[in-house]
Amino acid sequence: MKAHGRILLLLLTAVIVFTLTFALMGFAYKYDNKYTAGPPYGEDGVFAFSETDLDHPIYLIDGWRVRIGDIESTAFIGEYSNYAYFPGGTSPFDTATYEMTLHYSGNPQTLTMEIPEIYTDYTLRVNGSVVAAKGDGTSVNIPVGDTDTHLEFTITNDAHYYSGLIYPPAIGTSQIMTRLFFVRTLVYSILCISALTLALFSMVLWIARSKKGLFRHFGFLCLAFAVQCSHQFVWQLGLSSALWYAVEDTARLFLLAECAAIGVLTADLDRLRIYRYFARPLTLLACSFCFVSVMFIIPVCPSSVNLYGYFIDGYKLIMWGLLAVVAGIGLSLQKNWSNIFILSVCSIFGASLFATIGDSNKFEPIYGAWQNEYAGFFIILVFAGLMARRNIELVQQEKDFHVLKLQNRFAVESAQQMEDAMSQVRMLKHDLNHHILALNAYFDAGDYQRLGAYLSTLNQQRADLKPLYYSEHFLINTILTNYLEIAKNHDIKVTHKVHVPNELSAADADLCTFIVNILSNAVEGCLALPDSADRYIRIELFYRKGNLHINCINSAIPSKKEDKKFPTTKSDPTSHGLGIPAIRKIAEKYYGTATFHHEDGQFTVNAFLHLDDKTWNHTT
Fold this sequence. Notes:
Layout: H1 2-31, E1 42-43, E2 46-50, E3 58-59, E4 64-68, E5 71-75, E6 94-105, E7 109-114, E8 121-126, E9 129-133, E10 139-144, E11 149-157, E12 170-172, H2 174-208, H3 213-228, H4 231-236, H5 242-266, H6 273-300, H7 305-332, H8 336-358, H9 371-445, H10 448-464, H11 474-489, E13 493-499, H12 508-527, E14 536-544, E15 547-555, H13 579-589, E16 593-599, E17 602-610
Parallel strand pairs: 2-6, 13-14
Antiparallel strand pairs: 1-2, 3-12, 4-5, 4-6, 6-11, 7-10, 7-12, 8-9, 8-11, 14-15, 15-17, 16-17
Helix pairs in contact: 1-8, 2-3, 2-9, 3-5, 3-9, 5-6, 5-7, 6-7, 7-8, 8-9, 9-10, 9-11, 9-12, 11-12, 12-13
């Protein structure tokens, strides 16, 4: 039942994400769309407007007179995506003239007209004079008021699958249009810079995380999205060309291919032969085919334009289907945490497809981005969450691995120390009879001076034995054995009081980090002093009433009064101060505290961890 409940929750989340994405795109369609901006409207080649209409940008959509050869008709901008779809049209490659007369009622003034993105060669004439051509920028000034103003676009297409005036021009006062350009540039700058930043960051993670493929694919996805959103700047700079459009279209398809790759990797399906040797190569081949089609096939074979359109639409549907299949497999395998990301991406992608189908080529953003660009940005944000989650997992794995290495090292060193101590014990036991005979002889002879000296020698040998036992807790005992032995080997005086049960509810990784940092700092602080100094470590470690207490005092370099930071003894200053935050972090994790005091050549650590009640029965 729990598994079914989780699956239903994931599916409900996917439905919510789909609904929210679709609602946002619907909001953009209604409130940030040139086609729904409202009157005034053009009719039969005339666009009439007044001064009161200039409180917002005006969009020249309806009523354009279009002439291709001997055929003339009236159309709205966006009604036909290429010349082949015009009445009587046979090929996307031709020359068309778009004409509109502006009839303005109001005081004469000069307005700014935005030239929308035109994919091929064009010339714009105002009252018969050429004012702009391909590569001249995105806006021109046009006079209105004294007489009617005649606009004429002459557009020649001999290479692209889009023909003519695809997006409507906009006119308005200089102030209104400057604000429009600024907001739109700001939106696309945010999209591009965000994507490029995430791409760079993911590539750094890819290198840092032993070249994990997930981060590489996410980096490529972000890079593809940044390329896709660069069209605004390319058009403004007059750099549009067949090569750019080929790169732009390829980036759109490559973004979807990387979405699928991330989904497959997340579901651990990347080792499947059908994906490695068929699906993945096919998606990359499709991207290559897209580039070749725009650059070479369509210019040579205009009739392939429709096939190219079907290919693009089919590719999108297949990628969406592939993501849905991957999410379904993940659900069946109950990879719950990762499926939420894949299902969300499926929902966003699906909402984008439905929105694109539903707008019927009657959407062009005023201030914001296109629907597929919103979808791409949301997908990047979702996958960024996935990357963050995966990176946290890898950091935790590295931490666990480091702790395991420490535990193994401590265990080996503890075993070696135990073996050395046992050897000493065996030697003492072997010599015990000899010692007893010698002691009896001195006693019988009344030579108490030699008897005392002999006993002192034996007592020193006993003191030199390496301690085998500090605590019932294996990990704590191992850590203490290791670090206190290091201290004794460097003539550091060690005193200890340890009363800890054999089980504690704290995680071994946390205990290891907590105690190792305290003892490591203490040993390093003593070693920084000269050999002639009084070097000592006094440690108390005990468990009482659900709390693990530790008090560690060690000799240290005297601190300077004006220096508020604790002095470092590390050869690498960049690693200074890392131990104290780690101690504090673990203390806070277990609702405890950790205080540090450095004064008069002595460093003191007082800390405690509040552990679960289940260990109270071990209190000593």
